[in-house]
Design a protein that fits this description.
339 residues, alpha+beta, four-stranded antiparallel β-sheet, two-stranded antiparallel ribbon, 11 helices, 49% helix
């Protein structure tokens, strides 16, 4: 064997060893990857596929809280229930009872109350109700001789009591005249609560077993049109906000016949325009102004623009919602005893 053949044989042997080593390394790598994917059953080690499959199975099952979580949820629920009871007592402190009446008794009652309310003085000369004031939906029973139906009697009593209360509060606040009052029937949209996930349904059912059904107060909305001064309107809004009776002013609007503030400032601007040049000439020609004390020169001039208590009256429209939580009623609509 010559030298060339020896060199080629040596190179071929080295290449063969390298290929064999690469094959061995590839085999070990493939085996390790397979073991990581499938796991080692002999040693009880789960592979990636096994772990992924278990995770997917657990994610589809219901979530059961531990004992500590259940304890915390129970304590929080009890605190919310206590807060709810206290809030209900606070909101219901202004509730009023409904006195049982027959249709004839109610008719006689509203006629007498209408005459009494119409005679309430808003000031020394005027009464709170305008000359053409009509008691809104109660006009048929007051002026037209209609007899109320027995089924609607309770609802009419509640609405009439609210209307009289609102008019009396406006009179006490100093509102000049109430021109109109109407009952606005608002259709309340019931929002569906989001359904709990499957994992939380069992826990929600467990806590909801002892819960009472959702209670809704008796709510009526009234639209009032009146004539008032600024100070009286503010006083009326404060009276509604601080009343023990649960009242909410949804919105209000007013239309001024004359804006005293704008009129006053516009008048001052017109008066100041022709005097501007004269004042400049006086400052340039007179040397006495420079000798005045600085404090006197910088003293602001205070001018009363308008007084809300004596300002002109304007038309205002208010929307007031009254809530009654039925705490003064013997039974609720569903026949359950009230709190």
């Amino acid at each position: 064997m010559n030298k060339t053949k020896i060199i080629l044989a040596a190179i071929g042997g080295v290449i063969g060893v390298a290929v064999l080593g690469a094959a061995v390394f590839a085999y070990f790598s493939f085996a390790a990857k397979t073991a990581a994917m499938e796991g080692d059953d002999e040693n009880g080690v789960d592979g990636l596929e096994t772990v992924t499959e278990k995770a997917e199975q657990l994610s589809r099952k219901s979530v059961f809280p531990c004992a500590d979580s259940v304890k915390i949820l129970t304590e929080s629920r009890e605190k919310i229930a206590e807060w709810k009871d206290e809030a209900f007592k606070l909101a219901a402190r202004g509730d009023r009872p409904i006195v049982p009446m027959t249709p004839a008794q109610f008719k006689e009652f509203v006629i007498g109350e209408a005459h009494r309310v119409a005679g309430i003085k808003s000031d020394s000369t005027n009464t709170i109700c305008a000359a053409d004031f009509e008691f809104g939906p109660f006009k048929p029973y007051i002026a037209e001789g209609k007899m109320p139906e027995a089924e609607a009697l309770k609802d009419l009593q509640r609405k009439f009591d609210d209307a009289v209360t609102i008019i009396e509060m406006l009179a006490a606040a100093g509102v000049s005249t109430v021109r109109q009052i109407d009952v606005k029937d608002v259709v309340q949209k019931v929002e569906e609560e989001a359904k709990p996930k499957k994992g939380a349904r069992r826990l929600a059912k467990k806590f909801a077993k002892d819960d009472a059904p959702a209670f809704k107060p008796e709510t009526h909305t009234y639209e009032i049109v009146c004539k008032t001064r600024p100070a009286a309107l503010v006083k009326a809004l404060n009276a509604f906000a601080t009343s023990e009776r649960f009242m909410v002013v949804d919105n209000f609007r007013f239309a001024l016949e004359r804006d005293a503030i704008v009129a006053t400032f516009n008048g001052n601007e017109k008066k100041d325009e022709p005097q501007t040049g004269r004042r400049r000439r006086r400052r340039s020609s007179s040397a006495d102004e420079s000798e005045q004390p600085a404090a006197q020169a910088e003293a602001p001039k205070v001018t009363v623009v308008t007084d809300p208590a004596v300002d002109a009256t304007f038309d205002a429209a208010l929307t007031v919602t009254v809530h009654d939580f039925k705490s003064m009623e013997e039974t609720k609509e569903d026949g359950e005893e009230s709190k």
